[in-house]
Design goal:
With 382 residues, the protein is an alpha/beta fold. The protein has two domains: 153 residues, 2-Layer Sandwich (VC0802-like), CATH 3.30.2130.30; 214 residues, 3-Layer(aba) Sandwich (Rossmann fold). It has nine helices and 14 strands. It has a seven-stranded mixed beta sheet. A seven-stranded mixed beta sheet has the order 10-9-8-11-12-14-13, sandwiched between helices. The longest helix is centred in the C-terminal third of the chain and has 15 residues. It is elongated and about 70 Å long. The protein starts with a strand and ends with a strand. Bound molecules: S-adenosylmethionine (SAM). S-adenosylmethionine binds next to strand 9.
């Protein structure tokens, strides 16, 4: 595919970028003008296609997408640049232009009139226009915050929503208030495990099975473990439901202990698990058999023992909201106010267990609760 401009969803651009970097470990990624536009250089084409299929934060790629500031350009100047782009990137088959905006409108620039002018250019170049089912879509996106435009031949679904209503946690046969939203669950799986061919995914405290559903729908081999039989049965029902009523062969849920993971997994998974997704119980003794901090430490030690050398985990912890909310990555030495325990103690514990924290992001849940989403990778062993 060559150079691409990745277009990210607006839900959480910082997390979406971290997810993309995990799915495309061999590519160089650079933000271009908007936090939602990422120039992707190099890397395997196969992985770019996979990212389009499995990522939660990626909308589409624009082939060699052209980004321009509307502050420094006139409409005519921009159209001349687009003419050169279309000349350099010819397509065969029918075409259509699709335009959408991110944030507010661009003052003095009308997307519908620009789309019409682009359609005119394509028509003049001899392209057949087919608005219903074109072979190629020329995407035109405006970004209100940076007053800029991105345009290019689109690969992927563009504006399509990540998951339809049927996958909402509340629609599943077994629902608990702890159930994670599919979009966050999918992102956590991808961030933890990286490309699909790295290895399987383990959810040591699976609850209602939100991570497992997303891992299995992405085609990843996956196992969910929970200490409570009620959760195991519920997660099994949810997993089968997500796969049209039939339990998938590449994912399973079983009763087990997150602090003794090797006992619950096939021998050939030892040293091969690419990603662990961790949404532990909160507070003292909640749901579990031991204090939350002790449970997490024992689980991380157990996970490190069976992780792939390039393996990682994503840990979700409840925190008090930040003073100023941001969707950018936050420094690891930021003083996050965990609902339970001290952030510095959690970081030391993670390192003690043989992991290196990589990035921290915060997602707002409601006015008085946020979530910290921490990504860590295996620290090299001596
Ligand atoms: C916050 S919930 C997980 C919610 C889950 N992410 C979801 O989407 O439903 C934590 C789960 O950890 C389980 N758990 C607690 N201690 C455990 C242990 N030692 N081993 C395995 N599971 C444990 C609890 O039974 C509970 O289902």
């Amino acid at each position: 595919m060559g150079d691409m401009l990745a277009c990210l969803r607006g839900w959480h651009p910082g997390l979406a970028l971290a997810e993309l970097a995990a799915l495309l470990p061999d590519a160089a990624l650079h933000e271009e003008t908007s936090e939602r536009w990422i120039r992707v250089t190099g890397g395997e084409e196969k992985r770019q296609h996979e990212a389009l299929t499995v990522a939660s934060g990626l909308q589409c790629f624009l082939v060699d997408g052209y980004v321009a500031s509307t502050k420094e350009n006139t409409t005519e100047g921009w159209l001349t640049e687009m003419q050169a782009y279309l000349h350099d990137h010819p397509v065969s088959g029918s075409v259509a232009v699709r335009a959408w905006k991110q944030g507010s409108k661009l003052p003095g620039w009308s997307l519908s009139s620009l789309s019409g002018r682009l359609g005119g250019l394509l028509h003049d170049m001899g392209c057949a226009i087919d608005l219903e089912s074109p072979d190629h879509v020329l995407a035109l996106i405006s970004d209100g915050p940076t007053k800029s435009l991105a345009c290019g031949w689109m690969v992927g679904d563009g504006q399509a929503a990540f998951s339809n209503g049927e996958r909402r946690a509340g629609e599943r046969p077994f629902f608990k208030p702890v159930s994670l939203d599919p979009m966050l669950a999918r992102l956590a799986v991808n961030l933890a495990a990286g490309p699909l061919d790295r290895g399987p995914v383990v959810d040591p405290m699976t609850g209602t099975g939100g991570f497992l559903i997303e891992a299995s729908l992405s085609g990843r081999n996956s196992v969910g473990i929970d200490i409570h039989s009620e959760m195991v049965q519920g997660a099994q029902a949810n997993l089968a439901w997500a796969h049209d009523g039939e339990a998938p062969t590449h994912a399973r849920v079983g009763r087990g202990d997150a602090t003794r993971l090797a006992d619950s997994l096939p021998g050939n998974w030892h040293g091969a698990v690419a990603g662990f997704v961790l949404d532990p119980p909160y507070g003292r003794n909640s749901h579990g058999s031991m204090a939350a901090d002790h449970l997490l430490e024992s689980c991380l030690q157990s996970a490190r023992g069976i992780a792939h050398p390039d393996g990682g985990f994503v840990l979700i912890l409840p925190i008090h909201p930040l003073k100023e909310h941001t969707t950018s990555s936050l420094p690891l030495d930021h003083s996050f106010a965990l609902l339970n325990g001290e952030w510095s103690a959690v970081c030391s514990m993670i390192e003690r267990c043989g992991w290196t924290p990589q990035s921290a992001h915060v997602e707002r849940v409601h006015r008085s609760l946020s979530r910290l989403i921490l990504h860590a990778r295996c620290a090299p062993q001596d």
